[in-house]
Amino acid sequence: MKKIFFLLLIGFSVEAQQLTPLTVEKIMRDPKWIGTAPSNFFWSEDGKEIYFQWNPEKLPGDSLYKVSTTNLSPVKVTAAERRKLPSVFGQYNQARTKKVYEKNGDIFLLDIPSNKIIQITNSVERESNPTFSFDEKKVLFLLSSNLFSWDTGSGSFTQLTDFRKGIKKADPKLSEQEKWLKTDQLAYMQILKERNANKKLSEKNQKADKPKRPKEIYLDDKTADNIQLSPDEKFITYRVSKNASPKNTIVPNYVTESGFTEDISSRTKVGATQNAQELYVYDIAKDTVLAVKTDQITGIFESPEFKKDYPSKAAKPEKDKKESKPQPRTVIFQNLVWSDDGKNNVLSIRSQDNKDRWIMSLDVPTQKLKLLDRQHDDAWIGGPGTGGFFAGTNIGWVNNQTVWFHSEETGYSHLYTVDVTSGKKTALTSGKYEVQQAQPSKDKKYFYLITNEVHPGEKQFYKLPTTGGKAEKVTSMTGAHEVLLSPDEKWIAYRYSYSNKPWELFLQENKVNAKPQSITNSLTAEFKSYSWRDPEVTTFKARDGVDIYTRIFKPANPNGAAVVFVHGAGYLQNAHKWWSSYFREYMFHNLLVDKGYTVLDMDYRASAGYGRDCRTGIYRFMGGKDLTDHVDGAKWLVDNYKIDPKRIGIYGGSYGGFITLMAMFTTPDVFAAGAALRPVTDWAHYNHPYTANILNEPFADSIAYVKSSPLYHAEGLKGHLLICHGMVDTNVHFQDAVRLSQRLIELGKDNWELAPYPMEDHGFVEPSSWTDEYKRILKLFEDNLEK
Question: How far is CA 334 from CA 111, 223, 394, 417, 700, in A?
């Protein structure tokens, strides 16, 4: 029989189907036995070398390695060479011959052809966000939240803004009596009158001789960011945010060096007051500041659809209705992105409730906004490239009057252009797949894309003309590719992985059908000694007819029992064809299959990679379609894989722990046992950015929270439940497990247990904790799913 000598960091050793803790403990002392995948790779500025983090020597920390395009044998970079390297981040000039960047809080200018570096600043304070001015004669940067410039010719520094905290102190006001006395004195005392006149003249001369300084802008208790100089250098745009200062939660840390319980200040809870933002324009010549008004934005006064379920809250006395003026919804402003000729700009504006995203241009002199595109969703705006939670904003210019951006308006994130003059919008891609990443080529004739067009479980690299048409697939291997173009765009370096093959680094010419060249070989002999399974990626039909993608692990000798795994994060993909971030669970599944269990790992409703309707399928009801997908998956196993319906278990962490609780509480006859790891038990106690998108806010949509929170459904528990939770979890607080424990105690339930981990955060780091947790999960299933 096969023997698994090593099973990731959870460290199970299986021999004659028995767990051997002594071997587990031994393996836990060496967490790198699997091999360390290459990461954080980047190109040298001349495009001749690729640098990457790697650890083939199993040292305490990763080291920096490099290869050249002509020699793919990795060479370890010396500490001296590493320190001289410019930052990976920064901004290039138009010709890409110079780069300005921040490193260790100072600003540097790199001349790429000569590899000469000029250090612009050297101070204790941190300078940041360096960019070139539009004419490229200056380097702009931030210091103490103010904008400065450095002239590349003269080397002179200029302060461009003068933001100050607090309120400007007004001149002391004289009473009427004091005013009369002063006037009377100046009327009858000639010397006082002469001195006063001389004083005014002197002050006038001093003011005339004083150098031109930026306007003092007092922010009160607000902060300024997104500070940008316009291409004509006549205006400065900036965003002002008022910190709402909501109450933070406290996580007690019991096991400390001091011996005292110490408090960890953590996040707020959903529904806490959010920061308010405003956009301003500083006219340098006129020395004036004006606000950009949002009340003309299309749909800014629209009330969210869900509020129709609360008519009593909307109803107000007639007197109050007359006195109250409708207020525009609060919005979030992104940076202005200017066209290459400096004549046009574009910015993304989102409603704070995330139900609208507007692509707009700003006429800076008049502060007027012009609508280019509006995307609205009664649930929430999201998806790759749209700027939602888990998705960065991707926007730019194809030419001086054409903007490109992502939108989910068809149900999938695709690439669009819009003409800022005519307003004409064009779809460059379409279909039931996602454009997950996009960047234009340097000459802006092409887009380079990462999409899942071939299969939802693959990530492939494409080249698409900016005018639209058929995209060419450049990568070819089945799985996922994380691609980085060389500076001259002739080569691509990428990390690649497959379902049972961890990430490795490859080099390939940027051509269709070019041959991939392997750079790294990271896996240990121990890992290669076991035949890790390649799970089948397939689909089953949910009760509403939707195809649910899933990975199934099938044993050679099935024992009639099954385990359903629920991935975390909600908006995450795991039923795919690349190496999973849930590698511990993947290896645990191999162990379960060796023991005869069938394992199902699905991308339920709310998972990433399947478009808008899948993502928003849980709106206002978490534990609705996402749970019924798992129930339908269990039935599919019974119908197709001869699984005993009384011997199905379920487990998962974070969001997966939440679904496990909802499964055990609301569908107790489907799952005989469940392991809920670091689970959310009450969504009203989770964070705002994630939860408010899906369930709105507790005080505004209590119906959604009652339906979606396991705490309210705990009386339904029948099967055996294991809860595992780190006590210093700053993401899903241990308080969630404590509150649910109290509820289960009050209900008189005795078929559950809580395993606390005093020194673990949300993601466990200690091998001993992983070992303990997975021993408990395995025991739960063996005790309750055996015949």
Answer: 30, 15, 11, 18, 27
Q: Kindly report, residue by residue over 476-528, the tens digit of the pLDDT.
A: 999 999 999 999 999 999 999 999 999 999 999 999 999 999 999 999 888 88
Q: What is the mean pLDDT of residues 37-48?
A: 96
* Closest to 280 measured CA to CA, from 328, 323, 336: 336
Q: pTM value?
A: 0.92
Query: What pLDDT score was predicted for residue 316?
Result: 56
Tokens 């966000």, located at residue: 129
613 phi, psi to nearest 5 deg: -65, -35
The 8 Å CB, 24+ separation contacts for 307-311 are: 307/700, 309/701, 309/703, 310/700, 310/701
Task: Give the Cα separation of 565 and 660 in Å (integer).
Answer: 9
Per residue in 687-725, pLDDT tens?
999 999 999 999 999 999 999 999 999 999 999 999 999
Opening angle at CA 65, ends 576 and 442, nearest 5? 70
Would you mind telling me the total number of residues written for the chain in this entry? Answer: 787
Would you give the end-to-end CA distance of the chain in angstroms? 22
The two structure tokens encoding residue 606: 């709310």
Classified as helix, coil or strand, 433 is coil
Contact 42, 53 (CB under 8 A): no
Q: How far apart are CA 58 and CA 665, in angstroms?
A: 45
List the structure tokens of 230: 């316009």
User: Helices 655-666 & 625-641, crossing angle to 10 degrees?
Assistant: 70
Q: How far is Cα 769 from Cα 570, in angstroms, rounded to an integer?
A: 24
Measured CA to CA, the distance from residue 702 to residue 349 in angstroms comes to 28
- Cα 377 from chain centre: 20
Q: Within 10 Å of residue 629's Cβ, how many Cβ atoms?
A: 26
Q: What is the CA radius of gyration of the chain?
A: 31
Return all residues near 546 (Cβ < 8 A) that are at least 6 apart: 605, 614
Cα–Cα–Cα angle for 281, 284, 290, rounded to 5 degrees:
30
Assigned token pair, 102 = 């921040």
Distance CA(424)–CA(405), nearest Å, equals 13
Helices (H), 484-574: 525-528
Residues 6+ apart with CB under 8 A from 164: 216, 217, 218, 219
